[in-house]
Amino acid sequence: HKSQGTSLDMPAISQIEYFRVPPRWLFVKITDGEGKVGWGEASLEGHSEAVEGCLDSFMERFIGMEADDIEHVWQNGYRMGFYRGGPVLMSALSGIDIALWDLKARRLGVPIYQLLGGKVRSKLKVYAWIGGDRPSDVEAAAKERIQQGFKAVKMNATEDVGWFDSPHILDSAVDRLKTVKALGIDAGIDFHGRIHKPMAAQLASKLAPHEPMFIEEPLLSENPEGIAALAQVTTIPIALGERLHSRWDMKPYLGIVSIFQPDVCHVGGISELRRMAVMAEAYDAALAPHCPLGPIALAANVQVDAVSANFAIQEMSLGIHYNAGSADITNYIKDASVWDVKDGYIDVPTGPGLGIEVDEEQIRAVGKVKSWRSPTFQGPNGEWREW
């Protein structure tokens, strides 16, 4: 429809498409009435079908709306379905939001960060994963990351653990941290929500003398009171955020968590990630976006990282275990050199929009793909354990 009070015709959203691609990603393409396009990512690991259903419903609401009105579309997606938030709706909204930002910035011929106030840095510190879901030989993996240019890594603290388990199962986490730090790099330790309250403080205490970069999800995000109690007894920075889906979900953790790790694919895209970054800054907390996902998600994070004063470090999924034998962030884009790591940093891209060129032909050639499923862990008596 036409914008009131102006002679300019604002192009409307004319088409929304989505593409499920290996290893576990969901890309979104938006085309406007002039044929211009933008790309987004709506990946929600293990739940692609649910997000795709939400995208189908969004099509009915968003097609015909002005593509330039990104916030108007976002507010519709978040508020006008009565039920709000949560991983499925916010992941679908992420794909839409990122694509609209990409489309708008490309039309104007500038990077998205120019529309967010301009960059405050030209390089971004990054880290990569080592060790997999059941970490073992981390020394060889860390040496490989060093060869790739990384100066920091992250690894899981433990394998699956009982609700309350023998203290000796925590010792391997300390040994692996010491091994990696002996190579001269930093290491974040991801508890992954696997450790429950009876043992979380115990593991943090064991790790503290060896100075991990942070401990991530030391308890599940539905336990803010437990996180608050842990923050009182450890000097290690506490990081979490991948299972928080909006600024409202952040509220119980403001003033408690030192490093927020929202995932641009799970919080409603660039629009909400930027707001969450500013909220964290107001409480002197750092921003370190979660991103074990695809190249479009990483590119979207980078745009917000570039303008955020409190940005600390960015996760990259290059060579992550989930990508083994499948596609990586160097796939589905035409120039993978944008992800080259040097001395622990990547350059902030200068190209228009997301700063990457999506290879649509490669994406469309994939065809029908089975949805990825999260692993499951069971204890010795058949009980479910946190993955």
Number of continuous helical runs: 12
Radius of gyration, whole Å: 21 Å
Number of strands: 14
Helix content: 25-40%
User: SSE order, as H and E?
Assistant: EEEHHHHEHEHEHEHEHEHEHEEHEE
Low-confidence parts: 1-7
Tertiary shape: globular
Describe it.
- The protein is an alpha/beta fold and 387 residues long.
- The chain is 33% helix and 15% strand.
- The longest helix has 22 residues, at 87-108.
- The model is unreliable at 1-7 (pLDDT under 50).
Keywords, separated by commas or semicolons:
about 375 residues, alpha/beta, nine-stranded mixed sheet, three-stranded antiparallel sheet, 14 strands, globular, disordered N terminus
SSE layout and pairing:
Layout (H helix, E strand, L loop, with lengths): L12 E9 L3 E8 L4 E5 L6 H15 L7 H10 L7 H22 L3 H4 L7 E7 L8 H10 L4 E5 L14 H11 L4 E5 L6 H11 L7 E2 L7 H8 L6 E3 L6 H4 L8 E2 L9 H13 L3 E2 L7 H13 L6 E3 L28 E3 L12 H5 L12 E2 L5 E2 L2
Parallel strand pairs: 4-5, 4-11, 5-6, 6-7, 7-8, 8-9, 9-10
Antiparallel strand pairs: 1-2, 2-3, 4-12, 13-14
Helix pairs in contact: 1-3, 2-3, 10-11
Short recap of the structure:
The chain is of the alpha/beta class and 387 residues long.
